[in-house]
Every structure is written in C-alpha cells, then in structure tokens.
Amino acid sequence: MNPATSGGILAGLIGAGIQASRTPALHEHEGRAQGLNYLYRLIDLDSLQLDSTALEQLLTAAESMGYTGLNITFPCKQAILPLLDDLSAEARGIGAVNTVVLKDGKRIGHNTDCLGFAEGFRRGLADAPRAEVVQMGAGGAGAAVAHALLAEGVEQLTVFDVETARAQALVDNLNQHFNGSRARVGHDLESALAATDGLVNTTPMGMAKLPGMPVPKALLRPALWVAEIVYFPLETELLREARALGCRTLDGSNMAVFQAVKAFELFSGVTPDASRMIAHFNSLGG
Q1: What is the mean pLDDT of the chain?
Q2: What angle do CA 149, 152, 156 make, to 5 degrees?
C-alpha cells in the first residue's frame, strides 16, 4: 500500500552519505505507534552519484511521487533555499532548511535543527558556563546551532569555518538577530580555545564518512565542555578524546531526536511521543 495514495505519510531524507541514518527508523516506529501508515525513505546523493545540483530534479520527483515532505541534511540545507516557495519565520531567520513540507503544490521550508539542539543543550548542559563558546562550522547546521546557542544565553560566540566569508555571513546574521556583537569570526583557534568555556562541533568532521577531529587534540582541556551534532557514530573521535580528558560532553542524539520530533509533527499533523522516540533512538545502538 502506498501511503501517498492511502491517507498515509511518505517522507524522505536527502543528503550525502546517509546510509547509517536512524531517521527512517525513528519516523516509521513512531508512525506505527500512532497508527499511521508511514514510510520514510533515504535519498542518498552519494549512492545515486549526484550532488546538490540535483536538488531541483529530486524535489520535482518527490512531488510527482506524492511525498508528504522531506528532511534535508548535509550538504543541502542552504542550497535548497532558492527552490522553495516559502519559509517559516525560523528558517528565514536562520537561513537554512532541514525540513520541507510538500502540500497543495507548495514547497514550504522549516528548520527544526535549532529547536533540536536547544532541547538537547537544556537537557545535557543546562548548568554549563556559557560566557565564551567556540563553534566549529558555519554551514546549514551551524547556522541553526548558533541561533540556539545565543538564544540559550551564550554571551560571546566565536565561529570558525574553513570559508571565512561563510563564517562572516553567519556572524552578521546573528548580530542582526540578537541585537549587538555577541558573535564574532574566529581567526586564532588556539587562543580562542584557551579562553572558552565550551566547544561545539557543527561540521561533518567525525561522521563515519569523514573521520577525524575538527580541532587538534592538544587544544582540548578538562575544564572545557564539548558538544557534538554528529550522531553516526554517536561517539565521535572528538567526544572520545574529550571524555578521556574528563570534559563534560553532549552527543548528537538529542538534537537528532528532537529535530525529528518536530519534523514528524510537520509531516503528519500528529504530535509524537518524544519520550518514546528517545527510547527507540537509544535502542538502535551506537
């Protein structure tokens, strides 16, 4: 039975190197629990030998096949913006989209990453010092996380990215939205990490397909808290090295679950059981 023709939900994830994603299992398990006919498919650019230039073609195909909506991940969260009909206020403010609802011939972009990271941060690092925080990465996920960090009370956020212009664009956006100069572009990583309370990795470095660390191990120190948004693997090299030093850490699981909680609601119109989704995510193994 095809959900698209039977009042059910047909959703998918577009991204590169996503075969290890737990998102399909998260959505389908909760769908079953809610009594919904819910199918969730991976649209892996690597497996299809495509890149983000194929987004228009993939969106058109998804519409033709009756998809209810799509999640969007690396490297497409910003590339997809010109292909959408409208954006939620949050997605427009952040300048990145990770969820697209396809309805009535319209493509509406949303951002559930910001909410997802904020919820994880509140749960895992609620009392963490946040006078100074260093963020690695200024891409689509980085934009959402940076908005969440400032909203959660980080006083000074220093953003590093391999593309300085991209970091500057994000910093300008943040300072416009948060009225002041609480964000700045980082230039000297060693000095920034020596003075910071926390380190957040929003780059894909550490993913199964991109092993490694976004910062040199020698710059980590026990007093630092370290947060990660990568969740496959759940324990990245960065988190492993940080934990070995005694750092407080936050893995990518809560962000993964809570962005999915909101996306599920956007796709289905049904409020999911977040606790059940967390339990299911954890049952899937590391």
Answers
A1: 95
A2: 55
Can you give the pLDDT at residue 272? 98
The DSSP annotation for 139-203 comes to: SHHHHHHHHHHHHTT-SEEEEE-SSHHHHHHHHHHHHHHTTSS-EEE---HHHHHHH-SEEEE-S
For residue 209, indicate whether it is catalytic: no
Residues near 113 by Cβ (< 8 Å), separated by ≥ 6?
Answer: 77, 94, 96, 98, 140, 141, 144, 145, 255, 259
- Beta bridge partners, 201, equal 136, 228
> What residues contact 176, with CB distance under 8 A and at least 6 apart?
none
**Could you give all domains of the chain from N- to C-terminal order, each with its CATH number?**
3-110+255-283 (3.40.50.10860), 114-251 (3.40.50.720)
77, 103, 209, 217: which is the annotated catalytic residue?
77
Residue 160 in contact with residue 226, Cβ under 8 Å?
Answer: no
- Specify whether the CB–CB gap between 283 and 27 falls below 8 A: no
Q: How many CB atoms lie within 10 A of CB 247?
A: 19
pLDDT digits (tens, 9 = 90+) for 158-182: 999 999 999 999 999 999 999 889 9
Q: What are phi and psi of 260, to 5 degrees?
A: -70, -35
- Lookup: tokens for 136: 């690695």
Q: What are phi and psi of 284, to 5 degrees?
A: -80, -5
Cα-based distances in Å from 134 to 63, 69, 104, 165, 276: 40, 34, 42, 17, 33
Torsion-angle region of 27 (φ positive above 0: left; ψ -120 to 50: alpha; else: beta): alpha
Mean pLDDT of 40-50: 97
Q: Are strands 156-160 and 183-185 parallel, antiparallel or unpaired?
A: parallel
How far apart CA 197 and CA 1 sit, in angstroms, is: 52
Number of alpha carbons in the 13 Å side-chain half-sphere of residue 95: 16
Which helix (H) or strand (E) covers residue 107, if one does? strand 106-110
